[in-house]
Amino acid sequence: MNTRTISLALLALTLAECATPTVLNDATKWTIELASAEPSSSGACRIYDDLHRLMLDGTLASGKMDGSWTSTGSDGTRLATWSYRQGVRHGPVKMWYGGLRFPEARGHLKLEGTFSEGGYNSSVTRDYPSGSRQSVRVYEHGVLKSSQCWSPVGAEVSPATAAKEADSEHKQDMACLNNLEDMVRRSLAQARREITK
Prior knowledge:
Structural class: alpha+beta
Oligomer: single chain
Radius of gyration: 17 Å
CATH class: Alpha Beta
Shape: globular
Distance between the termini: 39 Å
Number of strands: 13
Mean pLDDT: 88
Number of helices: 2
């Protein structure tokens, strides 16, 4: 395998499961479609990989992510939807399993919650690839208030184990979203621009 193929494979795995916080692909080979040529563009924004497969789709307001955004895997599977208000995470978030790591769970809901002013402010539910409930975390203004977690066979785990799992899941969620935001920033700075009419 050459370096380009390895980079594309790592990018696909990252998008599929959001497990790696850094995208190793060259953003200069991506294409970003914008509504205007202004440095701080506003309007529709679509980001494609070097094979012109849609990776990210959303809206910018003065160069900041705004409104609803969608991440799509290289196989066309929707992987995540999440929202912003003036560049700050705000609104619903959902994530789905990608077909690369979990082919049998492709398109199954993985996570659902809500952000308010940058932090979780709701119940955040996570499901196993099988579809059974993995955890429920309850946040108020970004602070974890309670958590429950179940084994893959449905047995509830101890509160201490649930707390550790909640911390781990929170870090995974944030790494995934940070990775996607980084892809938008890199695309705005490095990708080939196309202005849509």
